[in-house]
Amino acid sequence: MSDPAITLYRLQACPFCERVVRKLDAYGLDYRSRFVEPMHSDRNVVKRISGKRTVPAIVDEETGVTMSESANIVAYLDRTYGDGDATGGAA
Question: What is the rounded CA–CA span in Å between residue 45 and residue 49?
């Protein structure tokens, strides 16, 4: 079995991260979770991949997309893997 194409960088108990997890699960997408350092200034791995230290952040190797901000990620997942509804639903 190959590795999932999507990697989600997240924090434990982060409501914005959970919003993205719910969307990934709703579409039945396989993804890899990478839990990052709780201290914002220590999130160097996230900074390297997305240019920011904020989470959630995803890397989708299937499409070559890297992004952060939960609303943007949910809209991207809707456009790319859903029916095109970019509203993202209630969070």
Answer: 7
